[in-house]
Design a protein that fits this description.
- By secondary structure, the chain is of the alpha+beta class.
- It has 3 domains: about 5-80; about 90-195, Beta Barrel (OB fold (Dihydrolipoamide Acetyltransferase, E2P)), CATH 2.40.50; about 210-500, no CATH class.
- It has helices spanning about 5-10, 10-30, 35-50, 55-80, 165-170, 195-215, 220-235, 240-250, 255, 260-275, 280-295, 300-320, 325-340, 350-365, 375-405, 415-435, 440-465, 480-500, and strands at about 90-95, 100-105, 105-115, 120-130, 145-150, 175-180, 185, 410, 470-475.
- Strands 1, 2, 3, 4, 5, 6 and 7 form a 7-stranded mixed sheet that branches. Strands 8-9 form a two-stranded antiparallel sheet.
- α2 (about 10-30) runs parallel beside α13 (about 325-340), α10 (about 260-275) packs parallel to α12 (about 300-320) and α14 (about 350-365) runs antiparallel to α15 (about 375-405).
- It is globular, with a radius of gyration of 24 Å.
Length: about 500
Amino acid sequence: MSLGERLQLCPMLRVTIMLILGIIVGKAVCPFIPIIAWVVLAFVSLAVAFAANKYPVGQSVAILLSFFFVGGLLVSFSIEKMKISLPKYPVTYQAVLVSEPVVHGKVIQADMMVVGDGKPIKVKASILRDTVDNRWQRLHVGDGITATSFLDVPHNFVQSTFDYAAWLKEHGFKAETFIYYSDWKKSVVDLTKLSYIDRTVIQARKFRQRLLARYHDLGADGQSYAVLAAMTLGDKSALSRELKDDYSIAGASHVLALSGLHLSIIYGVLTLLTIAFRRRWLPQLLIMTAIWSYVVLVGMSPSVVRSAVMLTVIAMVEILNRRAMLLNSLSLAAFVMLLWNPMSLYDVGFEMSFMAVLGIALFEPLLFRRHYTSSIALRIVYWFWGIVSVSIAAQIGTAPLVAYYFGRFSCYFILTNIIVIPCATAILYGTVLVAVLSIIPSVSSWLAGLLIGLVGLLNSSLHWIASLPCASIEGINWSVYQVIGVYMFIAAIYYAITFFVRDED
């Protein structure tokens, strides 16, 4: 199937591209164009679309333009919501911790919602640790505090190239604060002032902390615990800098961030457990309920939400007995997420996850053709080549972004993924088995020991890869325009291949 034919089957791709362009333009011209102008333009384009029903091309253009204006409207509204007036003096307030505090040097950092008479605001807090009675150790997610401090507008660190202020705003933080250890105390805060989603997330994160404590009970500690917590429950707070560097240099950072790989494995497990159901819709409904419960549990990061939306689309297609196209499902997932939060477009995780799947959707069919064979040896070869082809395709999609954001290219990413993907699959399956067999403590403890050993082996393997000569190319300093140029070059290559080679979809 040619590129043009494939695009014709992906109407959501065109819609999502226009929405993205609208968000980019809207963010750039936000100071100059009021929100009402975007509303008017969106309604006018829709009116033109309805009036031009006898002109299909003109109607299509008008519809696409309406999504462009909607993108501008959404991002302008989002930016406007972030504009609040903060007091220029210390204030006393009540707040609820919405994340588990993490130790960073002399302070603990946590996300919190400041509640008052108005709408709650999300604040990034740093609390100085006291060394006498260690009160900070008794602070956990869901706890309420009364504190006195400055609420500052997010700002960047001195001599830092990373736009930390923009990152905070894109993730919904309207302020940041530093709290002296004597200027806070635990208190009872009325959670009804928070939204239903915020209250649900808090309860889910409290449950996650209980599950993480269970890992310690099973004997996981140190970096084995850190990797297990990151891979299964999305908690990366215990990862050391050295381990993060090993995974990054080896090209395995994606394993530590919950994404489509993890949800696909969970989806596969749940599909096997519900295979006995005769009605098509019932197992899919149960699976999606479990998937979205897991998404809430692990913190609703953009990558895991994107994957959940895609799986939901696939499940709906399965119920309707229709054929799903990965590219169209990916576009729909992006569309839904950007409607919910247009600033997600500027999240590195969002960009990386979507470009990885886009690379797989486009290039993996060109690299790997499935053939039935009864030979066990050939099946193993096909399996390994399947891993390699997916790895190469994902790398094509993400390499320019990795070079831009991190200034690095991992040279042994194929070797890394041959090791990582089977290990990650075994670890996720093993974690589910440990949970299921927890009613038999002796068996679950033995299995947990094997699981911890496998995590240790994975860490050692990636440390070895990261230590190899020329493990990564460092110091890459690309501009935005160079990244765009590289992606245009990749698109040209793909078009040339699909122009001369017709693969059956």
